[in-house]
Amino acid sequence: AIWLTHLTGIKEVAIVGTEEQRAELMRPIWAQFRPNVVVAVGTGSPSPVPLLADRPGGDTGLAYVCENLVCDLPVDSVEALASKLGS
Known about the structure:
With 87 residues, the chain is of the alpha+beta class. The protein is built from three helices and four strands. The chain has helices at residues 2-8, 19-30, 78-85; strands spanning 11-16, 37-42, 62-67, 70-71. The radius of gyration is 12 Å and the shape is globular.
């Protein structure tokens, strides 16, 4: 697993929104084994978790995919998140 993360990098995913929105956006993450993905979930309010800091939730829930401390624009659909994760 260490070599895999060294070769492919680690993706950090921040998911914010209501409980239902977060559960929906988590589906592509749990759909397959992803040892190189770290996930943090929250409501979109201020958070002491750095990955969730300053991440507004939006009306549909949002997922922010980051790599090497750089985050892409947020996505609000399961399909878009799965694409960003490479599935």
